[in-house]
Every structure is written in C-alpha cells, then in structure tokens.
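User: Okay, second chain of the day. Same drill as before: sequence in, structure tokens out.
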Amino acid sequence: MIKKILLLAIVTFSLLVCGCEQKLPPADNPPQLPQPEVNQSENQPEKPPEKPLIEKPTENPQPKDNPTENKPVENNPAENPNTEQPQVVSPAAQNQKISVKVYYPDDAGINLVGVKRTIEIKNDSEKYLAAVQLLTTYPTEKDLTVIFPKNAKINSVTVENDTAIVDFDKNITKSFAGGSTGEELLVNSVVKTLTEFKEVKQVRFLVDGKEIETLSGHMDLSAPIKKSDV
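Assistant: Same drill. Structure tokens below.
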C-alpha cells in the first residue's frame, strides 16, 4: 500500500514538473505585451508653421492712410486773397466798336471830305491801322473816290509819343500814277485821318521800314507832316 502511494506521488510530481516546464517561458525572452496604438495627431500638439527667416516685401505695398497726405488742397479765394483768379472774358467784351472820321478825295480830285465810319477792334492800338485801311477801300458815297493804288498795302501804323508812323509796302511808290495833286491828296488824307485821334499831332511815312523823301517826287516826306500843314 505504501508503495502504491509513493508511486502515485512520484507520477504526480513528474506531471507537475513537465507542465511547469511547458508553461513558463525562458528567462532570456520575456513575453512581449501588445502595445496600444497611439494617435500622434491627438496626443502631440500641432507645430506652428515655420516662418521664413527674412520676410519678403509685398509687390505692391499699399500706403498707409495719412490724413495729412493724399488729401487734395482746396483753394478758397476768400481765405487766400493773393490767389490769382482766371479772368473770364465774354465774347462781347473781346471786340469793341468805335466811330472814326476818315477823309476821302472827292470825284473832282480837289478836296478831302470827312465821313464817319465804325470800326471793330480788339484793342485800342489797332484803331490807327484800321482807320488808314479804310482809305484803301472805295467809299459808299457816290461823290467820293479812293486815291490809293489797288495793290498798295499798309504794313503797320504805330504811334510813338505824338507821332503816328505809317509804313507802306513798296507798291505805294511803284504803282502810284497820280501827279502832284494826287500825291498831296493821298498824303493829306492819311494825315487828316490820323490826327482825328487827339493823341496824334503829326505823321511820318516809311516804305518797308525805311524813311523816304517822297512818294512820286512832288511832296517832301523826309520830315513828319503836322496837322497844321494840311
């Protein structure tokens, strides 16, 4: 009986030893436990985007609003009395009409007859030339005529002090066909017409800017002709 008990104990011990050897892992290779998956996006904070070391300027930088700059300056005439204001000239004020008296020879070629004419000028200095140019056109009166050559022109008429200076072109001498009476009528018609202006006392005659002694050899024009001479 004792032998059976011993035998049974040996067998039981052997089974236990074998079972332990199968279940226990070797000491050198411990069992690895499964690791839980970690979501890096949830557990780790997001890194801010890295900034470049040198920031590039924008292509078209917009200027900052500055109330003192870019503000149009308003000129107020009442606040700045020294500011010159443009003068507005109405069309009616550009030209002026004045009445003048001009002298034409009569048909007989003996006397000079004064008639009233209206001329239109832009400024006062134009009235002298406009008055003399009337003498080169035929008058409307039937008993009056013109003594100037048709192709003769007047270059200019200016006034210096009390002397009117009449500058004819060369045709006044080349084309003049009148005799001594005709020359006297032509010169005297110009002198009497220009001396109607109170500021003119005498008239000097030029041809293309040069002084002349006479138009056709009958009347001395080397000196100015005074109003009292005609």
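The beta strands are 96-105, 112-121, 154-160, 163-168, 202-207, 210-211, 225-226.

User: Thanks, on to the next one.
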